[in-house]
Design brief:
The complex is a heterotrimer of chains A (about 550), B (about 290) and C (about 325).
Chain A lengths: L32 E5 L15 H7 L7 E3 L5 E3 L2 E6 L5 E6 L13 H12 L6 H4 L3 E5 L5 E6 L20 H4 L19 E7 L3 E6 L13 E5 L4 H10 L4 E2 L6 H8 L4 E4 L8 E7 L9 H9 L3 H8 L4 E3 L23 H10 L11 E7 L4 H16 L2 E6 L3 H11 L4 E7 L4 H4 L24 H11 L4 H18 L2 E7 L3 E4 L2 E2 L15 E2 L6 H6 L1
Parallel strand pairs in A: 1-10, 15-16, 15-17
Antiparallel strand pairs in A: 2-3, 4-5, 5-7, 6-7, 8-9, 9-10, 11-19, 12-19, 13-17, 13-18, 14-18, 20-21
Helix pairs in contact in A: 7-9, 13-14
Chain B lengths: L13 H9 L2 H23 L32 H37 L1 H16 L2 H12 L3 H12 L1 H15 L2 H8 L4 H37 L10 H8 L8 H27 L8
Helix pairs in contact in B: 1-11, 2-3, 2-11, 3-4, 3-6, 3-7, 3-9, 3-11, 4-7, 5-6, 6-9, 7-9, 8-9, 9-10, 9-11, 10-11
Chain C lengths: L5 H29 L4 H8 L5 H11 L5 H13 L5 E2 L4 E2 H36 L4 H15 L2 H15 L17 H39 L2 H8 L4 H39 L4 H10 L3 H29 L1 H5 L1
Antiparallel strand pairs in C: 1-2
Helix pairs in contact in C: 1-4, 1-12, 2-3, 5-6, 5-8, 5-10, 5-12, 6-8, 7-8, 7-10, 8-10, 9-10, 10-11, 10-12, 11-12
Classes of the chains: A alpha+beta (about 550), B mainly alpha (about 290), C mainly alpha (about 325).
Organism (chain C): Methylobacterium symbioticum
Keywords (chain C): Cell membrane, Membrane, Transmembrane, Transmembrane helix, Transport
Pfam family, one (chain C): BPD_transp_1
Amino acid sequence: MVSKGILGLGGAAFGLILTAGAALAEPARSGGTLTAIVQPEPVILTAALNTAAPTGVVSGTIFDGLVDYDRDLKPIPALATSWETAPDGLSLTFHLRPNVKWHDGQPFTAADVKWTLENVWTKIHPRNQVTFGKVTGVETPDPLTVILRLGQPSPAILSSLNSNGAQILPKHLYEGTDPLSNPYNNKPVGTGPFKFKEWSRGNHIVLERNPDYWDAGKPYLDRVVFRVLPDAAARAAALEKGEAQYAPLSPVPLKDAARLGGLPNLRVETTGYEWLSPWLFADFNVERGPLKDVRVRRALAQAIDRAALARVVWFNFGVPATSPVPSTLTDFHAKDTPAYPFDTKRAEALLDEAGWARGANGTRFSLEIDYIPYGDDFKRTAEFLKASLRRVGVEANIRSQDTPSYTRRIYGDRDFDIAITWFAAFSDPQVGVTRAYWSASVGKNIPWTNGSGYRNPEVDGLIAAVQGEADPAKRRALFRRFQEIVLTDLPTLPLLELKFFTVEAVGLRHGARGDQVYGSFRDFRFDGPAPGQSRASAN
Amino acid sequence: MTGTLTISAARPRPAGLVARLIRRPSAVVGLALLGLVAGAGLAAPVLYPGDPLDMIGAPLQWPGMDPAFPLGTDMLGRDIAAGITHGARISLMIGAVATLVALVIGVGIGAGAGYYGGRVEAALMRLTELFQTIPPFLFTLAIVAVLQPSIPTIVLAIGLTGWPGLARLVRAEVLRLRDGELVQASIVIGASDARIIGLHILPNVLAPVVVSASILVANAILTESSLAFLGLGDPNVVSWGGMVGAGREVIRTDWFVAAAPGLAIVAAVLALNLLGDGLNDALDLKRALR
Amino acid sequence: MRMPAGGSAAIRRLAQMVSVVVGIAVVNFFLLHLAPGDAAQVLAGEAGSATPEYIAALRAQFGLDQPLGVQFAKYLAKVLTLDLGFSVRQGLPVAQLILDRLGPTLLLMGASLGFAVLAGGALGFVAARHAGRPLDTAISALALLFYATPVFWIGVMLIVVFSVWLDWLPVGGMAEIGTGRTGLAHLGDVLRHLVLPALTLALYYLAIYTRLTRAAMLEAYGQDYVRTAVAKGVRPRRIAYRHVLRNALLPVVTQLGLQLGAILGGAVLVETVFAWPGLGRLAFEALFQRDLNLLLGILLCSSVVVVLANLAVDLLYAVLDPRTARA
């Protein structure tokens, strides 16, 4: 959709990036109100303190990151205009954009970055404590320069610097407070293209254009309204009627997405999620029952037709996964790793070999399937697995529960056999993938970590090694070895690479960055008359 | 609670009941519908011997597209007709067992309160008020969410929250009977409480309880479908509520997936209510509690 | 039966309210603590990733690291001083969250119940006056059909027909956002948004009140004083309005008080389907987020509303039926 080459040049060149087919000469139409749908309602509006998806969507246009990511997940300038890594990999220098102001008029400086890193990212941010774990010191020689001193090379930092990965909070409003209960979490002050105006809980969040935005002339819209619509049918209807023009994060049932995409006023977009790279998988509890045996795990893998799963359950909003590192992470995804093609005969043979012959009633053994309660797609995935396993003589019972019960069961009590869930891989597997295999987190009741209970010292060693390796080629080799081992031992069965989607009005135009789902709306604009435009000009 | 809730004393003999019942058109329609639903449930293992959760066809086939699936298939290619018939068993079972739970609690508390009076009554009625004050559906939701959704927990939750109306009804009836000649005479001749309650009171309370029970079964089926709509169903068995819940995602494109079980729910709830009405009239009760 | 009026009723209701409030606090506190996982875990789970330090920090912040008994004692002490506490999940005082949502819910409940009682009463009245004739059968059948159809199903279907196909009414929400409408224009906007959810919730209760009114009217027709009136040659219309309807209203009013708790449960479904920013949905979300303070706060407030409504019913009784006032 977007020509990729020009993106890396710098923030100033960013203004005219348009979706395919748009005439570059057409003047950017300014004004109007964008009504977006956010679901579920965010908890707070600062992604630095809550990395949940809805917070990311709203927060992403109130704040800026040091960088954004293009479709190839390469960093492009935002609040940082340039950056260098020292040759030894032990320091990282950012040059900040001058004359940037917080929404309350205070200047944005290196002190804000330093304060947030020292007090939020490395203290309470759920992911960044690891990503920034090797930072030994932060220096700010002048207000526009930040130097990170590193105990070990930390290349993954550069994959986690957008407004979602490492959001910068205004030091002058947070210093000396408890960040988690700071009132500004609910009425955020950022540097982004839109300012927070009002939040009516259960109803809507209103943002207004930031007239002093550093990217002159932007944003194009006057106002952004996020509506909270809890029912999927109502979300579809609102989009269909044009009451809302932008709805990210797969807002409607997959079947409905195809229908909405066929309407003249809407389009379904699967780009903008590259930075997330979500993957769907099944954790096998390797500490319990028949699943202790790798042959059984491999057999179950071969009993599941992943192509059919993608087609039937996910309506092709997903493709079969061959590795825990999604193929969208082109630098790290390994091909020719151990594969488990759909083959029920082979599966039955493996189960026989493992000593689980069919009993008198045709059943070999029974187990429990738990699924992440994030919607019917996951429930149907469980139902699909249940029916698939039944064909090779394994009886499964599906258990439903809400999210806290689920995370407690899988990551705390470990009282399960197969658990279906999804992770965001992020642009570096160190951030999003290795956590599923690292033995240190087993049974600690930490959600979204190692659910299978897999403990392999060699894998732990590889995970530690990639964190401190600066040489890209060596990291690739380490990740390749990592993928070979975990696909041989198969504690976790990668099922699909999911494709999240956005439903949006055809008249809505915006850039297509790889992290657009959590990115700012600075280039969003309407082609032709914008909703709310007449009112805006009448005022 | 008030005089208008009292139910007339005349009780017909059972033989007359059937005759009276079949003279009421609503009761006949209700019985016929209920027979149809129960018949479908009974015939399910014969008509559709396989597991109704098996993915046996192409997904989302409209009714009539494939003669093998007269009502079409759902998102996973499961036969909807098989689901409806097998679901009849589960949904009726949920309704019946949940009602039984509510009956045991409601009749127990109502009879205890009405018969013993005094502090026992005050305490039991306060408990009833407590349960009536907490929004019942919210309470059911909370119990199911806490115990995690499965058929037994759903049944238990519906039963646990369904009894207060019944307790009030039974208490009012018992109060009336307790002061009646029969019970007073038994007390005079020294009959035990258990004997009096079992022999003289409960049989006479039976009629309004039966009428209420038919409504409670209907309500339980509706509640189960509402729970399923909110995602709190049991995925291991087919119930109508679960089918409607699964079909709501494709309601705009393939409405038949939710429509068929939805109609089944309407039919069963309608049948039970018609039957309740018919019983009410036939038993000559002026009004049963809803 | 005894039916206290005036002051004694108020005192009795007040005592009842206190015991119910304590009862609800006890039942729900321990019920929710039976559930696996707590609010800290919900937040950590939603965050997509977490560290043990992050979870421990949350737990300490929410006071979840203290013994259960201490947590409960603290909670009860607060409730009894009318302090509903702080919603750890939403980062706002519970009282504020509830006040924000109470208005929309009362509007929805009031509109639905008002419509249900008026329309249901009228239908029941007509049906009773035509008892046994086709009109009665038609009304009764319609009422039963409404009663038997799942609420959420009606809601979704109304959206499809009136919002999407006919495009007459908005899909959901409570008002168009950011229009800056005030006064009458704003009121009109809210009313347009109210139509479908209120109708959805009302149809079920409409069925109940239709049946109730019809039955109560028929019963009243059998009473001696009505027979006397008929014998005296009072015109049927006058009998229907003056004697029968007035008495038939008693059970309707009773039912109204009993139903308030139930209708909030129904509001969970309707508010979910129509994105109505009310208490029912807030309670539902609080449950799944293990937001104990918030859920308890909502249950307590709704029970207070129910108890107050019953008090109002008692007083209304005294007005409608002079006999109870003498008792």
